[in-house]
Design a protein that fits this description.
This protein is α+β, with helices and mostly antiparallel strands. It is built from seven helices and eight strands, in the order H-H-E-E-E-H-E-H-E-H-E-H-E-E-H. Strands 1-8-7-4-5-6-2-3 form an eight-stranded mixed beta sheet. Strand 5 (101-107), helix 5 and strand 6 (131-135) form a beta-alpha-beta unit. The protein starts with a helix and ends in a 15-residue tail after the last helix.
Length: 212
């Protein structure tokens, strides 16, 4: 049932804002870029959807594989599509969610997105433990976003982007636009395989078909 609702959400978003989809296509929907040097994890205090204080690095990222997106609750189309991708990824991860892999949705409009608003949105997408929605003081959120290369002075113009990396080893990758959950999962699996291979191992890049 939820999968059907997510599919409808994606379809409606595409119909309501076709210009956004054309812009994403022009930029390369699901395009991937590896730019680990542009990611700095800053251990700022944030608030989760339950109003609990959480440190970005020491409490949330830790040594987990992290998948992060950047949303705001009043966004009419792009953010719901990204959240639908995360809902699909959550299903694919199964028991790995929370134990091995952490999903983080960080608001870029923390003044509006108080914890109660995030909790309502998280419930809409069936977010389970391991998918944490974050807000906080604007100065702290902005510091985190700048470090992650996701800051935008105008929330409406922020790029559709998913950031994937290993909290202990790095290997950060950006997916721009609207990748399939399977494409993001492939990157998560590559990072997990590199861990098993041991020190010095590099996560394999996704196949060419996933770099469209």
């Amino acid at each position: 049932m939820k999968q059907g609702l997510l599919a409808v959400l994606l379809s409606v978003s595409m119909l309501v804002c076709p210009f956004l989809m054309r812009a994403a296509t022009a930029a390369g929907v699901g395009a991937m870029g590896s730019d680990a040097g542009n990611v700095r994890l800053i251990d700022v205090p944030l608030l989760d959807q339950d109003g609990k204080r959480r440190m970005l690095v020491s409490d949330l990222v830790g040594d987990k594989i992290v998948v992060m997106n950047f949303i705001f609750t009043t966004c009419p189309s792009v953010c719901p599509m990204q959240s639908a991708i995360f809902a699909g990824l959550q299903k694919e991860l199964g028991d790995r969610l929370g134990s091995e892999v952490q999903l983080l949705s960080l608001s870029i409009d923390p003044v509006t997105d108080v914890p109660a608003r995030l909790a309502e949105t998280a419930a809409r997408y069936g977010a389970r433990e391991g998918w944490t929605w974050l807000t906080g003081e604007k100065a702290d959120v902005d510091r985190a976003l700048i470090g992650l290369g996701a800051y935008s002075s105008e929330v409406e113009s922020h790029p559709a982007m998913i950031l994937v990396g290993d909290g202990s080893r790095g290997g950060w990758t950006r997916f721009y636009g609207f990748p399939r959950p399977a494409d993001v999962l492939a990157r998560v699996d590559a990072l997990a395989a590199a861990r098993i291979a041991g020190p010095g191992a590099v996560a394999a890049e996704p196949a060419e078909e996933n770099q469209r």
